[in-house]
Design goal:
The complex is a heterodimer.
Chain A (H helix, E strand, L loop, with lengths): L2 E6 L2 E6 L4 H8 L22 E4 L6 E2 L10 E3 L3 H17 L14 H8 L16 E2 L5 E4 L8 H10 L4 E4 L6 E4 L16 H5 L5 E3 L12 H12 L7
Parallel strand pairs in A: 1-5
Antiparallel strand pairs in A: 1-2, 3-4, 3-5, 6-7, 7-10, 8-9
Chain B lengths: L6 H13 L4 E6 L2 H4 L3 H14 L6 E6 L11 E4 L3 E3 L7 H8 L8 E2 L4 H4 L17 H6 L4 H9 L2 H11 L11 H10 L6 E6 L8 H8 L1 H15 L3 E7 L3 H16 L15 E7 L8 H8 L23 E5 H13 L1 H5 L9 E8 L5 E6 L4 H8 L9 E6 L5 E4 L9 H6 L8 E6 L4 H15 L5 H18 L5 H17 L3 H5 L2 H9 L1 H5 L23
Parallel strand pairs in B: 1-2, 6-7, 6-9, 7-8, 10-14
Antiparallel strand pairs in B: 1-3, 3-4, 4-5, 10-11, 12-13, 12-14
The chains are: A alpha+beta, B alpha/beta.
The complex binds flavin mononucleotide, iron/sulfur cluster (2 copies) and FE2/S2 (inorganic) cluster.
FE2/S2 (inorganic) cluster binds next to loops of chain A.
């Protein structure tokens, strides 16, 4: 495969043809914030946190779905990008009920970490306090819609890695929500194999193992990557 | 006739149609607008009256498509005396027939030579109101399908693409992308299987151009699609229509059936190696499904949400195959371009915007309905001459184009010519053809709030800026309207507009702030009048932070 040379934050690097800016940025040591991206499943470009500036392109481009091109000059950080990213995070916090202090993922949450990193010391938008329910019908897992950011990582691992096709999105706009099968309680689903991959995939406290309490919900993402590497590259050990 | 339709069959059908033409034709509008005020009953009553008067040999009562002055419907036009009857009812319809024998019609008339009609130039709507949309022979009598024959037998696909490039046609679905360039890209994309899609989702509030075209002249769209399919090398087409358009769907189904029966669709069209079939896909009426990638996902049976581009549909579209997707009006332009030549088309309009544009004229204006004008026509001509200005002598304040993705053009800019560039410079867009006229009684903040609510409700929810941003922007507009907002809220609103515009995934989010931004640009005072004093004093003086400063 041909290699492409490009610059990321001033650093000249080379990347495989077909690689995304996000993949290439790791080599450059640039840390682009992401939320909907998950190693092992295809990207959807939905959270918009990974937007970067590319010289000569008037639009901001999502690093997770944009492939590298020869001579590309990428900027992963700027005052403007940081401002937009912080606003996106604020919008998320205002949208549903993210109460970190009582959350199973407190301390291990990607949303929370991103908010820290972006200096989000308060939210300037009105909290919407919507009334979302909790689905605790499953024997092993729980789903708290109040903490869901609709990244669809759970949906993608469920379809793409597990192949069960249990998780889905229904509704649109602010009413969009994750459903089980054709909108039945999770515990009644016949298609769910109880593999727990969605729980491993979730960036927030929306999906959790039953029985975990505040701050106890830690995830092992390596598992997902391991399966995908084994299946697609016939590689049976993880990188580390 | 079977499958092997040839040119002489076409000319025979035309000759037969012309020979059978009766002395007098009473054309009755059977498009959705007039149908909703019982024009079907008018047509039946007219037929009955003709029979009673024993005039069947001389008078044809023909159901036709939109006759444009929708606000005065049901409309009946009598040819050849060029009388246009308005607000016809089943009760007074017989007097129109009586008038043919020298009596007096007891039906109001309007001047068919008024500027509303005379200023129009019909390319897309040339047949609308004349052709019987339910009979393919009626379309053939107006030279229908001749362009397809010529293209298949006398031009290579490359020549067809080149002619489209030369015509200068730009997509009528909103963005104005050069159609020839798009066709060329699909033609060049490698792949054995390619698709052509006609986008008939038309979701802008108040817009009904595409519906009218489909109801009034469905064969023009089919012929346009077939020519495009030949140019790009596709053998399967889809028309994606919203379920809210039952009449358009019925007419399309009927038109496809007739074209198949005559061998104008199917295998070996006109005894050439060209095969082309068209199927209809019905959308559930989500605005976002008009966005091309969402539309294709919907056709594939998936949830209709947009995906990032590239890859563009031209390279990887429906089922991963190269796909040409054009708007209804874009396709409806196609037959005329090949019938009359690309130079003819390129001679109409302005330097960068060729041909005509159809608008659905609505709002605070005397004549509402459908108009087709050459590109470059000043807004003033449309609004004042054709539209007759605001009703009851009111003053026009602004003209909104582009629906929820567009902007408001204030009265002082009414001399702006209607073309892609000029409207863009004023922060609006050509859009798909919605044109809403506003008078002095319209509150611009309310307008902004209305369109923001629309975008909020129609956001698919996939990306955060649009899903959550439209909600917050809508809340801020609501707060301003309720006189509860301060200058800090206004700053927050502007900052959100900028962010949502530049970070959203698809066109819906990217353009959702436009109505707000454009009213802020031209009518900022209306926002400021509603603001309350800020108890923290002016921004930047301490107090709550008004912008997302980051460390
Ligand atoms: C939210 C959204 C809604 C759209 N709705 C329509 C529509 O209803 N009809 C249409 O033709 N194009 C619509 N478009 C534009 C299409 O994505 C696409 O550009 C168009 O169909 C291309 O056709 P054209 O090149 O002939 O204009 C929409 C775009 C967006 C972002
Ligand atoms: S449940 Fe978790 S993984 Fe699934 S969409 Fe919500 S936040 Fe994302
Ligand atoms: S901009 Fe809006 S409609 Fe488009 S993908 Fe994002 S949420 Fe969906
Ligand atoms: S990580 Fe790229 S858009 Fe979410």
């Amino acid at each position: 495969m041909a290699a492409k040379t490009l610059t990321i934050d001033g650093k000249p690097i080379s990347a495989e043809e077909g690689a995304t800016i996000l993949q290439a940025s790791e080599e450059a040591g640039a840390k682009i914030p992401t939320l909907c991206h998950l190693d092992g499943v295809y990207d959807v470009g939905a959270c918009r946190l990974c937007l970067v500036e590319v010289t000569g392109v008037p639009k901001l481009l999502p690093a997770c779905t944009t492939t590298v091109a020869e001579g590309m000059d990428v900027k992963t950080d700027s005052e403007r990008l940081r401002r937009y990213r912080r606003m996106i995070l604020e919008l998320l916090f205002a949208e549903r009920n993210h109460v970190c202090a009582v959350c199973v993922s407190n301390g291990h949450c990607e949303l929370q970490t991103l908010a820290y990193n972006h200096g989000m010391d308060h939210v300037r938008y009105d909290y919407l306090f919507p009334k979302w329910g909790v689905d605790n019908t499953h024997p092993l897992f729980g789903m708290d819609h109040n903490r869901c950011i609709l990244c669809t990582r759970c949906v993608r691992v469920c379809w793409h890695i597990e192949g069960a096709g249990t998780k889905n999105v229904s509704g649109r706009g602010a009413q969009a929500r994750i459903i089980t099968d054709l909108n039945i309680p999770w515990g009644e689903s016949d298609s769910c194999t109880r593999c727990g991959k969605c729980v491993q995939a979730c960036p927030t406290g929306a999906l959790s193992h039953k029985g975990s309490t505040v701050g106890e919900m830690e995830r092992d993402r390596g598992k997902l990557e391991f399966i995908v590497l084994a299946r697609e590259k016939k590689q049976w050990v993880t990188a580390d | 006739m079977g499958d092997a339709m040839i040119l002489s069959d076409l000319t025979q059908i035309k000759a037969r149609e012309l020979a059978a033409r009766k002395k007098v034709v009473l054309r009755v509008c059977l498009a959705a607008g007039c149908m909703s005020s019982e024009s079907k009953g008018v047509k039946e009553r007219l037929e009955q009256a003709v029979a009673e008067a024993g005039l069947q040999e001389e008078v044809e009562v023909r159901g036709v498509g939109c006759m444009k002055l929708c606000c005065e419907g049901p409309l009946v036009q009598a040819d050849p005396e060029n009388a246009l009857y308005i607000k016809v009812t089943a009760q007074n319809a017989p007097s129109i027939v009586a008038a043919l024998k020298g009596g007096k019609a007891e039906v109001a008339r309007t001047d068919p030579d008024a500027p509303f009609f005379k200023r129009q130039l019909g390319i897309v709507l040339a047949n609308s109101g004349i052709v019987d949309p339910e009979r393919i022979e009626s379309y053939i009598a107006l030279d229908g399908y001749q362009a397809l024959h010529e293209v298949l037998h006398e031009m290579t696909p490359k020549e067809v693409v080149d002619a489209m490039v030369a015509s200068g046609l730009r997509g009528r679905g909103g963005a104005g992308f050069p159609t020839g360039l798009k066709w060329g890209t699909v033609a060049k994309s490698p792949g054995a299987k390619k698709y052509v899609i006609c986008n008939a989702d038309e979701g802008d509030p108040g817009a009904f151009m595409d519906r009218s075209v489909l109801e009034s002249d469905p064969h023009a769209v089919l012929e346009g699609m077939a020519i495009a399919a030949y140019a790009v090398g596709a053998d399967q087409g889809f028309i994606y229509v919203r379920a809210e358009y039952p009449l358009a769907i019925a007419r399309l189904q009927n038109a496809i059936k007739q074209a198949k029966q005559l061998g104008l669709l199917g295998s070996g069209v006109f005894e050439s190696p060209f095969n082309f079939n068209i199927d209809i896909r019905i959308g559930a009426g989500a605005f976002v499904c008009g966005e091309e990638t969402a539309l294709m996902a919907s056709v594939e049976g998936k949830r209709g949400t947009p995906r990032p581009r590239p890859p563009f549909p031209a390279e990887s579209g429906l089922f991963g195959c190269p796909t040409l997707i054009n708007n209804v009006e874009t396709f409806a332009n196609v037959p005329a371009i090949y019938r009359n030549g690309a130079e003819w088309f390129a001679g109409i309009g302005t330097e960068k915007s060729k041909g005509t544009k159809v608008f659905a004229l609505a709002g605070k204006i005397k004549n509402t309905g459908l108009i087709e004008v050459p590109m470059g026509t000043p807004l003033r001509v449309i609004v004042e001459e054709m539209g007759g200005g605001a009703p009851d002598g009111g003053r026009i304040k602004a003209v909104q184009t582009g629906g929820p993705s567009g902007g408001c053009i204030p009265a002082q800019h009414l001399d702006t010519p209607v073309d892609y560039e000029s409207l863009g410079k004023l922060g609006s867009i050509m859009g798909s053809g919605g044109m809403i006229v506003m008078d002095e009684s319209t509150k611009m903040v309310d307008v902004a709030r209305f369109f923001m609510e629309f975008c909020m409700d129609e956001s698919c929810g996939k990306c955060i800026p649009c899903r959550a941003g439209t909600v917050q922007m809508h809340n801020l507009l609501e707060k301003i309207l309720q006189r509860k907002a301060t200058v800090r809220d206004l700053l927050k609103l502007e900052e959100l507009c900028d962010m949502v515009k530049h970070t959203s995934l698809c066109g819906l989010g990217q353009t959702a702030p436009n109505p707000t931004l454009s009213t802020l640009r031209f009518f900022r005072n209306e926002y400021e009048e509603l603001l309350q004093p800020d108890k923290f004093g002016p921004p930047g003086n301490g107090g709550p932070r008004e912008s997302a400063r980051t460390p």
